[in-house]
Design a protein that fits this description.
Helix content: 25-40%
Strand content: 15-25%
Number of strands: 12
Order of helices and strands: HEEEHEHHHHEHEHEHEHHEEHEHEHHH
Number of helices: 16
Largest sheet: 8 strands, mixed
Length: 449
């Protein structure tokens, strides 16, 4: 059933997209059924080779949001199915925000799935902020009663989220809610807590269902989203102390795992779940980036009191290239390039190695870290909080240091442009995003010689 009325589909995004300008349309549908939870035989081991079996069953009534090309002839055949993120206390679409331009220019369908309890009916807020505090933890019916109040939305708990996600994927593949389109490829996508969920899904559920053709995992931690009892929401903070888990290596669906600098160490510690690249797995770690940056949080960045401005790096540009690389891997069998890893000093608390300016060493490089005018870092500012641990920092280099690095604005621009073209040649930024990458350059910061 299509949902209408109220103020339109709710989505916790900083700036709603102008879909008409993009040549896209949006529909929202009620998704209902009976979902299973899962139980695991044995332990959730580091190798990810988990054995899940269905457990309890319960009814659910949730929603999905579909954004698709207005012209059917523009459809690529790909559907990017995002597990909506609920860490802030309501459904949000960080993958759409990062990947919008690539999704639109390729003609992909995007589907946002309200998979978890808190997004549907409310619950505890794991990453509280002042932004959206009035709606955090309330659920869709309380956020927009005119649209959702009469739908009798129901969610049996996060233990059932994995099967809800599967059932939505199965329906999408069959053409349900697609306005006549029939997707040929389904890509599971999720960032942050949703990436944790995809780790669990890939290791325990995908072997049973094989519903997805590829997985775009963005900013995972070391562990998967835990299985919880009926009626409960997953406590992602408590889960961080669990056994680190890699992606199992015995499945056909490829995984591209894109990690920001702050994901690798700090609270998420994905370093503990690093694994070798294979013919089914790629890990991209990006220097000078943060779990949630200025592009992702938009105008909300100004309200975060972290001691310094939030990270203003180009993670979204690398993410778009990663999605294209994954799609090519699925459709043509050509794997993405193998990327260098960030340089990490192993210890009880691992630390990223940095140069004399404080810029991370190793990893995927962009001109913002190789031809810098500021120190872009995943490390927080001087006032750490739950959100500040995630948004990183941007600290301008001094005028004296800039004079040491660049004799003139022209010299700076020449080096920056060459580094940008290298990022494109290396496969970490697509050529269509060259203007966006060049727009990060700041020649006005350089004093003429």
């Amino acid at each position: 059933m299509e949902i209408a009325g109220g103020d339109g589909a709710f989505m916790g995004e900083a700036e709603p997209p102008d879909l008409r300008r993009l040549g896209y349309v949006e529909h929202e549908y009620l998704a209902t059924g009976t979902a299973s939870s899962y139980r695991v035989a044995g332990a959730l081991t580091h190798d990810g080779r988990w054995t899940f079996t269905p457990d309890a069953t319960a009814p659910y009534r949730t929603r999905i949001v579909v954004r698709q090309p207005a012209k059917a002839s523009a459809f690529s055949g790909n559907a990017v199915v995002e597990w909506l993120n609920v860490s802030g206390g309501s459904d949000a679409d960080p993958e759409w925000v990062s990947l919008e331009e690539e999704i639109v220019r390729r003609g992909d369908v995007w589907v946002g799935v309200s998979a978890q309890l808190i997004g549907v009916v409310g619950g505890p807020v794991r990453v509280p902020t002042s932004v959206g505090a009035d709606i955090a933890g309330k659920g869709l019916a309380a956020i927009n009663p005119a649209r959702y109040g009469a739908l009798q939305l129901e969610h049996p708990g996060d233990g059932f989220s994995f099967d809800i996600y599967t059932q939505v994927a199965r329906a999408i593949r069959a053409g349900a809610g697609m306005d006549g389109l029939r997707p040929q490829r389904l890509i599971a996508a999720g960032e942050s807590q949703s990436a944790f969920a995809l780790v669990t899904y890939y290791n325990g559920v995908q072997p049973l269902t094989r519903q997805f053709d590829g997985f775009f995992v963005h900013s995972r931690g070391a562990v998967g989203l835990p299985l919880v009892e009926p009626g409960k929401s997953a406590d992602i903070a408590a889960a961080l102390g669990g056994t680190p888990a890699i992606f199992r290596t015995d499945q056909d669906a490829p995984v591209l795992d894109a990690q920001t600098e702050s994901d690798v160490t700090s609270v998420l510690n994905s370093y503990a779940a690093r694994q070798p690249d294979t013919d089914r797995f790629r890990l991209w770690e990006v220097a000078g980036t943060a779990h949630a940056d200025a592009h992702l949080v938009g105008s909300a960045a100004a309200s975060f009191d972290c001691g310094v401005p939030v990270n203003n790096g180009p993670m979204h540009l690398v993410a778009k290239s990663a999605l294209r690389a994954l799609t090519t891997w699925i459709t043509a069998g050509k794997p993405p390039v193998i990327a260098p890893r960030l340089t990490v000093q192993p210890a009880t608390t691992p630390q990223i190695s940095r140069d004399a300016d404080g810029i991370a060493l190793g990893g995927i490089r962009t001109p913002l870290v190789d031809v810098p005018v500021a120190i872009l870092s995943g490390a927080p500012g001087s006032k750490p909080s739950a959100i500040c641990l995630l948004v990183g920092s941007t600290q301008p280099l001094s005028t004296t240091r800039l004079a040491q690095l660049y004799p003139s604005p022209a010299a700076y621009l020449q080096r920056y442009t060459a580094a940008a073209d290298k990022s494109i040649k290396d496969g970490y930024v697509v050529r269509e995003d060259r203007p966006a990458l060049l727009a990060f350059a700041e020649p006005s910061r350089i004093t003429a010689g």
